[in-house]
Design brief:
- With 334 residues, the chain is an alpha/beta fold.
- It folds into 2 domains: 251 residues, Rossmann fold (3-Layer(aba) Sandwich); 77 residues, no CATH class.
- The chain contains 11 helices and 10 strands.
- Strands 6-7-8-3-9-10 form a 6-stranded mixed beta sheet, sandwiched between helices. It has a 4-stranded antiparallel beta sheet with strand order 2-1-4-5, with helices on one face.
- A hairpin with a 2-residue loop joins strand 9 and strand 10.
- Helix 5 packs across helix 6.
- The termini are far apart.
Length: 334
């Protein structure tokens, strides 16, 4: 019997309304929306790491914030462990507080995500207090100590009375991870967790996340723009462009045999240690289209090096998109 996925995202939309100018409002012109996430669907198995990659502004962080309930979805369905996150859903739903007890988020900037007026002990213990899990102080001290040591801050007692400004960037991110893991969540959403850190520290944080996943069997949605970390860390990769997933599959297959032209362009410019393994660089022309006024047809066609006329008219689904561009490649090669 196949085990049900930990997370299911079905037709997720997240639009942000654009504030109208006075004259536009007076003339009753239609409202515009920034289409940050536009019909995204995927599943996440228990214990799996799914990496969501793409350029800045493609909607990666918006997906992360919507999954954890920091943004309200415009349309669609998010199902966590068989229960809908949407309280208006007809099927059994999970409350926001209960969701955040079982799913936690690691934010991109450890300098901004920690309260500078709280000690490290208070920061890590706060989720336990909010959810009313451990009221006995000695048990709380033990839980905080375990979380800090699991996050690589040893001996943990040395950090209890320190403040965030007294720590390095890598240590701060470890505190963020400890604060997320103290509740022993089943789902971890990591939004660019190493992008603000020095290169020498990134491998340590990635190793830490991998070890936590192996020890506790948690599922991870890993948001990043760095394909080099994806190859090391993820089981599957979802490539996003302008609010949509354009390619998704096992990490090895996506990296070694990319099908979509956008994925090929991303991989071609990723740094490779061995110069003999470098691909021919694909430099995309033009700017990313405005997410308010998306191009007709395939939204990648204005920058696609293999676009044909039908791409300007048809807006294909994910599978059809790959097949369409494969056909385009064959036509151009003749």
């Amino acid at each position: 019997m196949t085990q049900a996925p930990m997370l299911e995202v079905r037709g997720l939309y997240k639009y942000f309304p654009v504030h109208q100018a006075f004259l536009d409002s007076l003339m009753r012109r239609p409202h515009s929306n920034v289409k940050a996430v536009d019909d995204v669907s995927f599943t996440l198995a228990r214990g799996e790491v799914l990496a969501v990659v793409g350029e800045s502004g493609c909607g990666k962080t918006t997906i992360a914030r919507t999954l954890i309930g920091l943004e309200t979805l415009t349309k669609g369905e998010i199902v966590f462990d068989g229960k809908s996150v949407n309280e208006r859903s007809q099927q059994p739903h999970i409350g926001l507080k209960q969701l955040r007890k079982r799913a936690q988020m690691i934010f991109q900037d450890p300098y901004e995500s920690l309260n500078p007026r709280s000690t490290i002990f208070e920061i890590v213990a706060e989720p336990l207090v909010v959810h009313g899990l451990i009221k006995d102080r000695q048990e709380r001290i033990t839980a905080v100590r375990t979380a800090l040591e699991d996050a690589g801050l040893r001996p943990a007692d040395d950090y209890f009375t320190r403040y965030p400004h007294e720590l390095s960037g890598g240590q701060r991110q470890r505190v963020v991870i400890a604060s997320a893991m103290v509740l022993q969540p089943e789902l971890l959403i990591a939004d660019e967790p190493v992008s603000m850190l020095d290169v020498s520290i990134r491998a340590e944080i990635l190793n830490l996340l991998r070890d936590l996943r192996e020890k506790r069997g948690i599922s991870i949605v890993f948001i990043t723009h760095d394909l080099s970390t994806v190859a090391y860390f993820a089981d599957r990769i979802a490539v996003m462009y302008l609010g949509r997933i354009v390619e998704i599959g096992p990490a090895r297959e996506v990296l070694q045999s990319p099908q979509h032209p956008y994925t090929k362009a991303l991989i071609s410019v990723a740094p490779v240690p061995n110069p003999r393994l470098r691909r021919e660089r694909v430099i995309l022309q033009g700017e990313t289209p405005n997410p308010i006024n998306l191009p007709s047809g395939c939204r990648f066609h204005p920058r696609c090096p293999v676009a044909i006329d039908i791409c300007k008219e048809n807006d294909p689904q994910l599978k059809e998109l790959t097949q369409s561009h494969q056909a385009a490649c064959l036509l151009l090669s003749k």
